[in-house]
Input
Amino acid sequence: QKEVEQNSGPLSVPEGAIASLNCTYSDRGSQSFFWYRQYSGKSPELIMFIYSNGDKEDGRFTAQLNKASQYVSLLIRDSQPSDSATYLCAVRNTGTASKLTFGTGTRLQVTL
Amino acid sequence: SAVISQKPSRDICQRGTSLTIQCQVDSQVTMMFWYRQQPGQSLTLIATANQGSEATYESGFVIDKFPISRPNLTFSTLTVSNMSPEDSSIYLCSVETGGWETQYFGPGTRLLVL
Output
């Protein structure tokens, strides 16, 4: 069973702080990694993807990948109340052509 | 990305009946996927639907229960057959598009089976 693990939270951070969301995966050969944001009652929205070790930045979001440690994270700088949502980590496993395995998601609460 | 629509957006159905969910995308895509998201849970892939071939089902999902059609590159349907209350869930279609094989989701169909 290829697994993707996330802390379910809730992760509570004050407005303006950095939120750090973490994800570990079991398939060492995984090639690509995705972060989705899901507001309550809505469908998942793709916010970041990363393929190479290191950091990838897009506005207030930074994805970090460490394949040796099988670890991917999402940093949200200057967190806003509108960032309050569930963040889903998804991994494309080896040999499964386009199939994604999703973690259970981390619920983020940004407090005023 | 792609603009994806689903019909119906929600429905309440009686056990033993069937419901067909439609997924329409505004551009031609090769790969379409159907997921289920049960209350408070993450997404579980039901099947992959490629145009011109039979859908590929994941473990625990069978064609008799979840028949899928993919008549062209912009449209797919998922039928939930002989429904029971355990089928109450959100059903989501997604498409793979863009150079990085990224998946984008439709708005979902919220199904309640009584």
